[in-house]
Write a structure and sequence with these properties.
alpha/beta, about 375 residues, five-stranded parallel sheet
Length: about 375
C-alpha cells in the first residue's frame, strides 16, 4: 500500500481492515482461572504507571489507528478499557494479560515504584505460554533491574522509533499468534515512514528525559564487608585484639562504589568494584613514606566500631592528598547491613580541612 507521491506529501494511510474473524473453536477442558476468548483479534496490553498516562494514550492511539482497528488494546488508565468498578483488580488485569499477545512496558524513571508493572510482567511471563512478547519502551536512561536483559525501544530516539514502527507494522513474526504482518504495508513504504514520523513527533512532546544531577562535595568510598567475616571481627573485638581486627578489615573490605574524585586521593587513576581497601592504604603509604598514617588507624577504628554495633568516633586524623598538599580526614557517615547481599556497607567521606599552624590541628571557627 506504499508507493510514491509524485513530490507531494502523502497522507498517512490506515491498513485495510480484515473481514470479521470467526469465533475460535473451543477445545479441551476450560481453564477456571481465565475466561476463553471469543475472537482471534490480536490483543495488546500497555503496562505503565498511571503517572505516565500521556505516553500510554499516544501509544494506544497509534496501535489502533495505524492498524485500522485490527488489534484490541488494554490500557488501565483509559476510561474505555479501565477495570470495572467492584471487580477484583488483579483478576481483571490477569484476564487481560493472559490473552495479550504483546505486552508493552513503558519505563520512565527507573527508581520510582514499579511494583504493579513488575507484577504485570510476571503474569505475562507465564511459563505455560510461549506466545506472549514483552517489549520494553524506554523513556529515560535506565529501566527497572528485572528488565535489564531485554532489547528495548528508546522512545526519545527517532531511529529507534522508526525501527520499531517498521517491525510492528510489517514483520510477520512481531505478533506471536498472528504469524503474519498486522498490515499490508511494504517495509520501505511511505506509509510506514509517515507513521514513524508522526509517532516520534507526538512522543517528543511528552517523553522528556533530564538526567539526575548529583555530585560528591568530598571524596567518597562505599566500602563492603562480607557478613561471613563480621562474626570473626566481633569475636576479636571482644577479646581486645585490635591488630587482628584491623588486619581482617584490611584483608576483606573492598570498594563497592566511589565518587569520581576519590581515586586521586590515594594516587589511583580509577577504582573498580571489588578493589581491596588494603591496596588503597598501601598505595598511599608508598607515596608518603615519611608521613604519619594516623588516618589509617582512625578509619579502621571507625569501621570496627560500626561493625560491632557501636557509634564510630572520628578524630580528624589527617590524610594528605596523594597529588596535592590538601588534608582530608576519613569520616564514616552511614552503615548498611544487607542480608540479601550478604554484606555490610559503609559510606565513608574524606572532607578537606585547613590545618591551624599554631596547634597543628584542624582550623575551626568557634562562636564568639
Amino acid at each position: 500500500m506504499g508507493g510514491g507521491n509524485n513530490g507531494a506529501e502523502a497522507p498517512i494511510t490506515q491498513a485495510a481492515p480484515d473481514a470479521q474473524p470467526d469465533a475460535i473453536a473451543q477445545s479441551g477442558p476450560p481453564k477456571p482461572e481465565v475466561s476463553e476468548r471469543t475472537d482471534d483479534v490480536p490483543r495488546i496490553f500497555i503496562s505503565h504507571r498511571h503517572a505516565d498516562r500521556e505516553i500510554a494514550d499516544i501509544l494506544r492511539c497509534f496501535f489502533l489507528e495505524a492498524t485500522a482497528g485490527r488489534v484490541k488494546v488494554f490500557q488501565s488508565s483509559f476510561v474505555g478499557s479501565a477495570p470495572e468498578i467492584g471487580k477484583i483488580l488483579t483478576e481483571e488485569l490477569g484476564q487481560e494479560l493472559y490473552h495479550a499477545e504483546l505486552v508493552f512496558v513503558v519505563c520512565t524513571i527507573a527508581d520510582e515504584n514499579w511494583a504493579y508493572c513488575m507484577w504485570e510482567c510476571g503474569v505475562a511471563f507465564n511459563p505455560r505460554k510461549d506466545d506472549t512478547r514483552i517489549v520494553v519502551l524506554q523513556c529515560g536512561q535506565d529501566v527497572p533491574a528485572p528488565l535489564n536483559d531485554r532489547v528495548r525501544v528508546a522512545l526519545n530516539d527517532e531511529t529507534s522509533i522508526k525501527v520499531f514502527v517498521k517491525q510492528f507494522l510489517t514483520d510477520e513474526n512481531f505478533f506471536p499468534r498472528l504469524r503474519r504482518p498486522i498490515t499490508d504495508f511494504e517495509q520501505e513504504s511511505q506509509n510506514v515512514t509517515a507513521w514513524a514520523e508522526r509517532l516520534h513527533k507526538q512522543l517528543q512532546a511528552v517523553v522528556t528525559y533530564e538526567p539526575d544531577d548529583a555530585w560528591h562535595a568530598w571524596p567518597y568510598l562505599l566500602l563492603e564487608l562480607p557478613l561471613s567475616v563480621v562474626e570473626e571481627i566481633r569475636l576479636a573485638y571482644d577479646d581486645s585484639q585490635e591488630e587482628a581486627v584491623h588486619a581482617l578489615l584490611r584483608q576483606h573490605c573492598v570498594v563497592a562504589a566511589n565518587a569520581e574524585n576519590a581515586p586521586q586521593l590515594f594516587g589511583k587513576a580509577r577504582l573498580s568494584y571489588g578493589h581491596p581497601l588494603n591496596d588503597l592504604i598501601s598505595s598511599w603509604q608508598r607515596k608518603h613514606r615519611e608521613a604519619d598514617s594516623i588516618w589509617v588507624k582512625s578509619l579502621l577504628d571507625q569501621l570496627t566500631s560500626a561493625t560491632c554495633g557501636d557509634f564510630p568516633s572520628p578524630n580528624w586524623a589527617a590524610l594528605r592528598h596523594a597529588q596535592n598538599q590538601n588534608f582530608h580526614a576519613p569520616m564514616l557517615l552511614k552503615v548498611f547491613r544487607s542480608p540479601s547481599k550478604r554484606c555490610m556497607q559503609f559510606d565513608v567521606y574524606f572532607p578537606w580541612f585547613k590545618v591551624d599552624e599554631a596547634s597543628g590541628g584542624p582550623a575551626v571557627v568557634l562562636p564568639a
